[in-house]
Structure formats: structure tokens, C-alpha cells
Specification:
The structure is a single chain. By secondary structure, the protein is mainly alpha-helical. The protein has one domain (20-69). The chain contains 3 helices and 2 strands. It has helices at 24-36, 43-54, 60-69, and strands at 2-4, 12-14.
Length: 70
């Protein structure tokens, strides 16, 4: 559970899934989330969003394995 406050607005509460592994579907959700925020999905931003949304710290090795698989 995360609480975010943007400017003078009321705090917003976010609830996210806690995953043990990253699936292709979860990566798609992350990229769609980044695109909805009108941002370019860079590797660093994807790693950050995965950590924020799923509580998983993505390693470069694991990311390279996923990219080779795809």
C-alpha cells in the first residue's frame, strides 16, 4: 500500500500486487502504466516502476534474460 500526495490535493492511496516473479503480463502492465503517464518507458523507469508496483528489485542480469527470451 502506498500513499501519494500531489501538490495541494488530497492524498491518494494505491494498492498493488506483491509478486515473487515477473511475468510478461506484469511487464506489459508496467509499460502501459508508464505510457498512461505520458512518459517514455526507459529501462531505468521500468525497473523503478517494477520496484514501486510489485516490490521486486529487478537486476540487470534478470532483465537481460527476459529480453533474450522475448
Amino acid at each position: 500500500m502506498t500513499i501519494r500526495k500531489f501538490g495541494e490535493s488530497e492524498p491518494m492511496f494505491f494498492v498493488s500486487l506483491r509478486l515473487t516473479t515477473i511475468s510478461l503480463q506484469s511487464i506489459v502492465w508496467i509499460i502501459q502504466s508508464i505510457k498512461k503517464d505520458l512518459m517514455t518507458p526507459t529501462e531505468k523507469l521500468i525497473f523503478s516502476r517494477i520496484k514501486e508496483c510489485y516490490g521486486i528489485k529487478m537486476t540487470q542480469y534478470y532483465w537481460n534474460c527476459i529480453m533474450q527470451y522475448l
